[in-house]
UniProtKB/TrEMBL annotation:
Coiled coil: none annotated. It is a multi-pass membrane protein. SUPFAM superfamilies: MFS general substrate transporter. The chain crosses the membrane at residues 24-45, 65-84, 96-117, 123-144, 165-190, 210-228, 249-270, 282-300, 312-332, 344-364, 376-398, 404-425. Keywords: Membrane, Transmembrane, Transmembrane helix. This is MFS transporter. Its main location: membrane. It comes from Oerskovia douganii. Gene3D superfamilies: MFS general substrate transporter like domains (1.20.1250.20). The keyword Amino-acid biosynthesis does not apply. The lineage of its organism: Bacteria, Bacillati, Actinomycetota, Actinomycetes, Micrococcales.
C-alpha cells in the first residue's frame, strides 16, 4: 500500500490485513470526529441561544417564531445530507472534509455577529443564519460514510459508534457551554440585558460561545487539510442511486429515524420544552439528554460488534416506547393548570436519549453488514439525511400539536420499528440477520 502525490491511498482494502494500515484508519477517525463534533455544535448553536435571545432587551421573538427558527437548521441539515452523501466517492475524504470545515466557519461567525446587535435584525436574516447552521447537520452524511471506507467490517461498529457518539457530544457541549459562557464578559465586549420570565434581569454576553468555538473551527480546517488521506472508492451519481432498489434501504431508514431522528428532534426542542413548562432557570440541565445519548452510542459500538446490531435495534425501539410512555404519563396525570412533575419529565426524556443512543450504534453496525461496501456508505448517508429532518419535524409538531399527541406518536412508531427490526434483522432465521 502506498500514497500518491495527491494523498490518495493506493491498493487499500481494510478487510485484507496486508492492505490496511490501522494507524491511517484511526488518525482519520479522530480528525473526522473532531470536525464532526464542531459540526454538531454549529447545528445546535441557534437552538441553545434562541431561548435566551427572546428575552434580551431590543429583541422580541414570539414562541411560534422561536420554534420556526429552531426548525430551520433541521430543514437544511436534512437537505444538505442528501448532497453530502454523494461527495465521499466523488471528492475523497480529504477534499470533502476540508471544504466542509471551511464552510462551517461562516455560520459560526454569523451567529457570533448577529447576537451582538443592540436591536433585533430582520426576521429574514435570523432565518437565513438558522438555515446556514444546518450545514453542521448536513456534513454528517459525508463524514460517516467516508470513515466506513477506512475500517474492516469487524471493527465498523466500534469505529462508527465512537465517531458518531463523540461527534454527538457536540450537542451536549453547546447546550452546556452556552448557559455558562453567556454569563461573563470577554475581551471587554459589551453585554446585553436579558429579562427572563419570572426571574431577575441579568447581563448576558451571547457572543461568547461563538468566540470560544471559532478558533476550534479553524483548527479543524488545518487538521483536515494536513493529516487526512483519501481511499479509492469511486462511484458516479447513477451508481450511488442503486441503493433505492433495495427494500432494506427503506427499512433501515425507518430504523434510523427511530434512533437519530428522535434524538436530533428532541435535542433541538428540549430547551424550549423545559423553558415553557418549568421556567428558564432549568435550561442549564438541557445538555443531559444529548450527553447520555452520545455516551450510549459510543459505548454500545463494541457490544454491537459482539452481539450484532439487530437485537440492539429491537431493544432500542422497546426502550424508546417505554420511556416516551413515562413522559406521557407525567403529562396526562396532572390537572388543568398544574405543572408536570420535573423528575418524571427529566427521567423519561433522558431515558429516551439513552435508548436512541443504543439504537444509533446498532443501526450503524447493521448497515455495513447488510449492504456491500460501496452501497453501505450511500445507505448510511441516505438514512442519516432523512433522520436529520428530526429538528424540523419536532419543532413543527410541538408548535402545532399537544405534547401528549407527540409522545403518543413516538410510542406507536417505536413499537412499529421494534417489530420490523425483530422480523427482518434479529430473530433466528431472519432475512438479513445483522
Amino acid at each position: 500500500m502506498s500514497t500518491d502525490a495527491r494523498r490518495d491511498l493506493i491498493d487499500w482494502d481494510p478487510n485484507d490485513p496486508q492492505r490496511w494500515d490501522s494507524k491511517v484508519a484511526w488518525s482519520t477517525l479522530w480528525v473526522t470526529t473532531f470536525n464532526l463534533m464542531l459540526a454538531f455544535i454549529i447545528w445546535y448553536l441557534p437552538g441553545a441561544l434562541i431561548p435566551t435571545l427572546g428575552t434580551v432587551t431590543g429583541w422580541d421573538l414570539s414562541e411560534s417564531q422561536s420554534y420556526w427558527l429552531l426548525a430551520m437548521p433541521g430543514l437544511t441539515g436534512g437537505l444538505l445530507r442528501i448532497v453530502w452523501m454523494m461527495l465521499p466517492p466523488m471528492l475523497g475524504t480529504r477534499k470533502m472534509l476540508t471544504l466542509s470545515a471551511l464552510l462551517m466557519i461562516i455560520p459560526f461567525v454569523g451567529w457570533t455577529w448577529v447576537v451582538m446587535l443592540p436591536t433585533q435584525p430582520s426576521y429574514a436574516l435570523l432565518v437565513a443564519l438558522a438555515l446556514a447552521a444546518g450545514l453542521g447537520g448536513g456534513v454528517f452524511s459525508g463524514y460517516m460514510p467516508s470513515t466506513s471506507y477506512f475500517f474492516p467490517k469487524s471493527k465498523q461498529g466500534t469505529a462508527l459508534g465512537l465517531q458518531a457518539g463523540i461527534g454527538n457530544f457536540g450537542v451536549s457541549v453547546v447546550q452546556f457551554v452556552v448557559p455558562w459562557a453567556i454569563g461573563f464578559g470577554m475581551f471587554g465586549l459589551a453585554g446585553q440585558l436579558a429579562h427572563p420570565q419570572n426571574a431577575e434581569p441579568r447581563q448576558v454576553w451571547l457572543q461568547n460561545p461563538g468566540l470560544i468555538f471559532i478558533p476550534f473551527a479553524v483548527v479543524g480546517v488545518v487538521l483536515a487539510w494536513t493529516l487526512l488521506k483519501s481511499v479509492p472508492v469511486k462511484a458516479n451519481l447513477k451508481q450511488q442511486f442503486d441503493i433505492f432498489q433495495n427494500k432494506h434501504t427503506w427499512l433501515m431508514t425507518m430504523e434510523y429515524v427511530l434512533t437519530f431522528g428522535i434524538f436530533s428532534g428532541l435535542a433541538g426542542t428540549f430547551g424550549m420544552l423545559l423553558k415553557q413548562q418549568f421556567g428558564p432557570e432549568y435550561l442549564t440541565w438541557v445538555f443531559l439528554g444529548a450527553l447520555v445519548g452520545s455516551l450510549a452510542r459510543m459505548c454500545w459500538g463494541p457490544l454491537c460488534d459482539r452481539f450484532g446490531g439487530g437485537v440492539w435495534t429491537v431493544v432500542s425501539g422497546i426502550g424508546v416506547a417505554a420511556s416516551a410512555g413515562l413522559v406521557l404519563f407525567g403529562q396526562v396525570t396532572v390537572a388543568d393548570g398544574q405543572i408536570p412533575s420535573l423528575p418524571i419529565f427529566m427521567t423519561g426524556m433522558v431515558l429516551i436519549f439513552f435508548f436512541c443512543g443504543v439504537g444509533n450504534a446498532a443501526t450503524f453496525k447493521q448497515m455495513p453488514m447488510i449492504f456491500p461496501a460501496r452501497q453501505a456508505g450511500g445507505v448510511i448517508g441516505w438514512t442519516a439525511a432523512i433522520a436529520a429532518f428530526g429538528p424540523f419535524l419536532f419543532s413543527m409538531l410541538f408548535n402545532y400539536l399537544p405534547r401528549t399527541a407527540v409522545f403518543g406518536g413516538i410510542i406507536a412508531y417505536a413499537l412499529l420499528c421494534a417489530g420490523i427490526a425483530w422480523h427482518f434483522y434479529a430473530r433466528p432465521g431472519a432475512e438479513a440477520k445483522s
